[in-house]
Amino acid sequence: MVQACSHRTACHQQLNIQKHEIHSICTDEGYKSEEQRRRQGQRSTHEEHLIHLMHERDEMRNDAKKNILKLQEDNGQNYDKKRKKSASIQGWRLRCNSANPVWDWPQAATKILQPLRSGESQVEGLL
User: Fold this and answer.
1) Residue range(s) defining the domain that contains residue 51
2) Residue 12 lies in a domain
């Protein structure tokens, strides 16, 4: 049976112990710190219950992670199946990737926008 200890107000104000912890710490023997209780090997049912709940929480989180990863993998596979196939890029389109309707020099625009002829290399310095 838990009895109120005489030093309740002084020791609990110093340690800022919450109300639900006061009853498990203050006994008729007096105040015991949590370290002393652990050293003696005494673990309250409240602590054991909290450890059990934390273990269950961790298991549930791991299960949720596995389920999310599985769903993401399935969604990725379905997306890849339904995705529109990309068109093959022609050589002249590669040269036109920097096309801009406003040009400072019309000659540069015509050199960049015209398709490459066989054996011709792109003019460097214009892009």
Assistant:
1) 1-87
2) yes
